Amino acid sequence: MSTIIPLLALGVIVTVLVAAIRSMRRPKPRRPPYELIDASPEEMERRAMDLRDRLSRDPFGQARATALWRKLASGGEGEGLIVEFHRDFCGHGLVRRSDRVVLCDVFDGGGQTGEPIAAWNDETDFVAFFAGQSDFSCSGWDAREPVFHTTDPWYRNNQRITGAAIDAWLAKGRF
Question: Where are the domains of the chain?
C-alpha cells in the first residue's frame, strides 16, 4: 500500500510532463508574409489589391443559382444563406421573406438585417442574375455590377457571398 501513492504521484507527474512537451511541439499557426500591425495606408491598399486579384471571376453558373433559389424558396421566413454568424456585422445574406428573397446586410448573428439591397420574386430572375455572378462581382470590387459595387474599402470583400459559401450552405441539410 505504501508504494501506490508514490506511483500515482509519479503517474501524474509524467502525464503533466508529456502534455507540456506536446504543447511545445505543436506547429505554429501559419502567418501571412507581412507584418500584421501598423501597416501604412499604402500597405493596406496593396494587401487589398492582392486579395482582389485572387478572387475568382468564374460565374456561379445556372445549376448553382437554381439550387440556391430552390433551397431559399423552401425555407421559412427569415431563413437563408448568411455568410457569417457572430456579433455585429455578419456580411451579406440572402434571406427568405414571405413573398421574395432579399439580398441584405446581416447583423448580430442573423438576428437583424438591413434594408434590402436587391430582391427577387421569382426563380427565373434570380437564377438569371446569380448565374452570371462570381466571387469578384459579389465582392464589391466590380464597378460593372451595381448591386454589389462599393467604393468603401471596409465594405469590399467583407463577408460577401462567394461560390464556396453557396456550396457550403447548399451542402447543409436543413437551414
Answer: 56-171
